[in-house]
Amino acid sequence: MTDTTLEPTSSVNTHYLERVIDLAEERHVAATEDIFDTRGMKLVAKGTRISRSLKEKLIVHKLHKSLESCIALQDGVDTIAIMREAHRIAEAFAPIAYIVEEASKGRQSPFEVMSSIQFGNAMSMMLTLTERGGEAALSHSVMVSLLSTCLASKLGLDAKSQAGVALSGLLHDIGELYIEPKFLHPERRLMPSEWRHVIVHPRVGQMLIADLENYPVAVAQAVGEHHERFNGAGYPARLAGRNISVPGQILSVAEMIAELLGEQDSPLERAELALRIIPNEHAFSLVSAVSSTLRLHHSVPSVPKQDGALADEANERAKILFDHIAVVVETGDKMMELPRLNAGKARELLDLTIKRIDTIQRAFYSTGLDSSRNEDAARDQEIMFEAIVATREIQWRLRDLARDVALHCALLGAAEAESFQPLIAMLDAEPDPSYLARRIAERPQQKTSGCVTALSDHMLSAPAQRTLLLVDDEPNVISALVRLLRPLGFRILTAASGEAALDILAHNDVGVILSDHRMPGMTGVELLSRVKTLYPATVRLVLSGFADVNTVTDAIRLGAIYKFLTKPWNSDELGGILLGAFDKHEHDLGNLLEPAASTASA
Ligand SMILES: [Fe+2]
Ligand SMILES: [Fe+2]
After folding, report:
1. What's the CATH number of domain 79-296, 1.10.3210.10, 1.10.287.180, 2.60.120.260, 3.20.20.140?
2. Contacts of 445 (CB under 8 A, 6+ apart)
3. What is the pLDDT of residue 601?
4. Taking the model in full, what pTM does it have?
5. Which of 164, 337, 436, 438 has its CA at 20 to 30 Å from residue 291's CA atom?
6. Which residues have CB atoms below 5 A from the ion given as ligand 1?
7. How far is ligand 2, taken at its centre, from the CA of residue 87, in Å?
């Protein structure tokens, strides 16, 4: 049985106790005061060394005071040991030295801030147990503390707040000491359902600090928030935006980049890319604090040289991930049709999950790594670098989502939770080319090359009605076009932005899309280039000012745009052009289906 509950003033957490007893077998751990149970019976006298023989007694009885506050380790981790490790880290990792140097300019150095940290017996014990938990465990805590302090300094936080951030960084993972060790083993790939054991650690850490130390409230709070994300996709509370304290936001960024900064190749570039890959995952001010450090340090080696074989492999991995995400999307779409997921909490969870998948998919497209890339681009060093980093980051986000969905399934009925399992499994799975190939082959009507996995099933059946999607940020233009085109019998959908258009395309069979070019956010050419990849049979037209003709020439040449029409439009001609576009769509669709149909019948 796994015990991840914490009641510091009564029951002893067995995993913490086991760690303490292991330590006590090698080092001097003793009671700093008499330990009583809640009925006043003395269990352990002051000065007694903690040993395995006391384990039973300490577990069976409810204690009057928490065990953590009644014991101490001789010569445990102290500020001197922390500072030694902080300096070692800065010497070992050049990017961290840059960040520290940058944060020290004209201000108190992050090292000075950290050296003011004070902690008592309980925290010294926790950090010593952390150190014993694995080679890099204490190093990770010190690194997060150092980076958090640098970020706090760059954001201009006052000295007291910086010291609080340094402490939070150092203690951020102490809650892990209350989790069964097998769930933390670095080699173990946790099943999404096992994630519930780990997810409690920020909250446990927060409670421990609040109960055991006299630190400012902000310290414990930041520890509780260190896995929250600005866009609400974090844990344990799914806090978003300013609901996460500034120190909590800082810790979240520092914790995320700490590991990346230890990489051999271009660590700062990796960290920066990881931070911005999902829009709004972290506060803009923090992402730009990291980016500005990156820009200042030209001495940071540029992106690593990728040889041809590596470039091909990265290209291949990106393509596999592209197919994988398409299958995830497809799985989510099919779940939308399940009656038992049609209402209530199950529907809410499904909607939220699909929204997050969509965000991840868009983030992937925005890297330009989908199959629309040409081979020259594939050899481009920077694109290759992005491919390698982004592929890994995107896979992590999918796995995070799997864990989150699995966790929230606990709030659903058994049958509803069961319906989510295929989606959880897909999100968590390592993209498997042979599985993806099978899934593609199982679709009798689809082509099996290029971007075919992004084609939705329903798109390949002949549409009952001609569906036109109009995209323009000007509502007046949209209403004028709707008025003009409605008599032609089209089903007309409208979108005010490229992003909204992609949403609509994901859920509707659109034969023809007519888009403005100049729009805030995604331009018409960007949108139609993505549509070309995602829904190649959708005929794509631009309706824009004459001045934009030069901008879109390349897109026309590359086949992303079928026709460029100028504003103001000729009302007599526009309908005819669109009818011709639908004819083309139906013709193209026929061609697209033909080879697959013959394969299916073979
Ligand atoms: Fe951590
Ligand atoms: Fe953590």
Report:
1. 1.10.3210.10
2. 457, 460, 461, 593, 596, 597, 600
3. 32
4. 0.69
5. 164
6. 173, 255
7. 22
